[in-house]
Amino acid sequence: MNLTFTEEQEMMRKMVRDFAQTEIAPFVEKMEKGEFPRPILRKMGELGLMGIPVPEKYGGAEMDFTSYIIAINELSRVSATVGVILSVHTSVGTNPILYFGTEEQKQKYVPKLASGEFLGAFCLTEPSAGSDAASLKSRAVRDGDHYIINGSKVFITNGGEADIYIVFAKTNPDLGSKGVSAFIVEKNTPGLIIGKDEKKMGLHGSRTVQLTFEDMRVPAENLLGQEGEGFKIAMANLDVGRIGIAAQALGIAEAALSAATEYAKSRHQFGKPIAAQQGIGFKLADMATSVEAAKLLVYRAADLRSRGVKCGLEASMAKLFATRTAVEVTTEAIQVFGGYGYTEDYPVERYFRDAKVTEIYEGTSEIQRIVISKHL
Ligand code: CAA
User: Fold this and answer.
1) Fewest Cβ atoms nearer than 10 Å: which of 105, 170, 256, 274?
2) Nearest atom, ligand 1, residue 176 CA
3) Residue 205 has what pLDDT?
4) Dist. CA 306 → ligand 1 center (Å)
5) pLDDT confidence of 314, banded at 50, 70, 90?
6) CB of 240 within 8 A of CB of 182?
C-alpha cells in the first residue's frame, strides 16, 4: 500500500495552491458580496482546470481522478464557492455526457465544457423530490423529433450561469425510478425559465436557483442514454460527485484547522499562548486527527476511482465523514478564536457558514448512511 501522491499529483497541488492564493484569495470579498467568479473560472479554463479528468480527445487535461480531487481540495481551502462550482461542473455537469452520451453528443458538448467555454449544471432536485429523487414529477413527452418537458427544479447549483443543464424528467410516470430519463438542455432553449436566486447561509458567490420548464422543447437527439436510464445516470454520477463534495469539505476543514492553529499560537492569555493551554491544545489535537482521517477516506475513494474500481460505498463514507468533520472543525475553530471568531474580521465564520451545506447537498448525511448500510 502506497499512501504518497505521485509527482504529477504533487505538481497539481502546488499549481492549484499557488493559483488559489494569487487569483482567488483577492476575489473572496467580492464573492462574499454575491459576485459570481466568472473571471476566476475563465482563468481556470486557461489552466485546464475545468476538464481535469476529461480525455484529451475531448479537450480535457486527461489527468487521473485523484488530481481532480486534489484541485477541489486545494481550491476549497481558499474558496468553497469555487470548489463547489468546479465539482458540480465536472462531476455531474460534464461526466454524464462523457460516460453516457453518444459520440455526437460528446463531440458537441464535452470540449466546450472541458475548456471552460461552457459551464455545466445538474437538475435532479424538485420542490417535493429531494432525498427521494426517484419521486420527481417533471414530465417529458415525446412529440415527433422533440421532447416537451414541463416541471420545476430547485437548488440548482450554477443555475442561471450554466450553458448546459443535465435535466431529469419522467418519460413514463408509472415506472418509478425506471421511468426517469436524462436530457442535455442548452441554456437558450425556449421554455427554460430561470427563477428565484436562493439567499443562502454560505457559499455566497455560488448561484443557486429555481428553474421552471414550460413546454420546453428539447431535440430528441439530446436524450442522454436510453429512455428510462435517467435515474441510473444520476446515481452513477452522484457516486463520483460525492467524492468531490467530500474534498470540498476537507478543504474547508483544513483551512479552519490552519487558521485556528496559527491564532492559538499567537494569542496569549494567562501568560502563555492559548495553544499551550491544554483546553485549546487538546481541541486542536482532536481537530487535526479528524482532518487526517477525513483526508485518508477522501483520497482512498479518489484512488479507487482513479483505478476504475467501483467506489460508491467508499465515496459515501468519505462524504459522510469529511462533511461532519468540516462542520465540527469549523465550529471548534470559532471557539478557539473566541469573540473574534464570531466577527467577519477573521475567515472562520465564513468557513463555518460554508461547511454546513456539505452535509446536505449531493445526498444528505442520512442518505449517505442509507447507501452505506445497503452495501453492508
Ligand atoms: N449506480 C447505478 N445505479 C444505481 C445506483 C448507483 N449508485 N443506486 C441505485 N441505482 C439503481 C438501482 O440499481 C435500481 O435499479 P434496479 O432496480 O435495476 O436494480 C434503481 O437505481 C433504483 O434504486 P433504489 O431502489 O435503491 O432507489 P431509491 O429510490 O431507493 O433511492 C437513494 C436511492 C440512494 C436514496 C437515492 O434516491 C439518492 O441518492 N437520493 C439522494 C439524492 C441526491 O443525492 N440528490 C443530490 C442532488 S444534486 C446536488 O446536490 C448537486 C449540488 O448542487 C451540489
Assistant:
1) 105
2) 29
3) 98
4) 22
5) very high
6) no
Ligand 1 close to Cβ of residue 238 (< 6 A):
yes
Strand partners, 194: 211
Please tell me the distance between residue 231's alpha carbon and the centre of ligand 1 in angstroms: 7
54 phi, psi to nearest 5 deg: -80, 135
DSSP H or E run through 70:
helix 65-78
Cα of 271 vs centre of ligand 1, distance in Å, is 55
Instruction: Retrieve residue 86's grid coordinates.
Output: 468546479
For residue 312 and ligand 1, the question of a CB distance below 6 A is answered with yes
pLDDT band at 1 (very low <50, low <70, confident <90, very high): confident
Average pLDDT over residues 194-210: 97
128 CB burial (10 A radius; 0-12, 13-18, 19+) = exposed
Annotated catalytic residue: which of 254, 349, 362, 366?
362
pTM exceeding the 0.95 threshold for the entire prediction? yes
Mean pLDDT of 254-272: 98
Probe residue for ligand 1, chosen from 177, 198, 233, 357 as the CB with the greatest number of ligand atoms within 8 Å: 177
Cβ–Cβ under 8 Å, residues 320 and 87: no
Cα–Cα dist 290/280, whole Å: 15
Ligand 1 atom showing the smallest separation from residue 87 Cα:
54
229 carries an active-site annotation: no
Q: How many residues does the chain have?
A: 376
Determine the pLDDT at residue 193: 98
ipTM of the complex as predicted = 0.97
Q: Is the CB of 371 under 6 A from ligand 1?
A: yes
Which amino acid is located at 124 in the chain? L
| 153 CB burial (10 A radius; 0-12, 13-18, 19+) | buried
94 close to 272: Cβ distance less than 8 angstroms: no
Query: What amino acid occupies position 86?
Result: L
Which cell is 270 given? 494567562
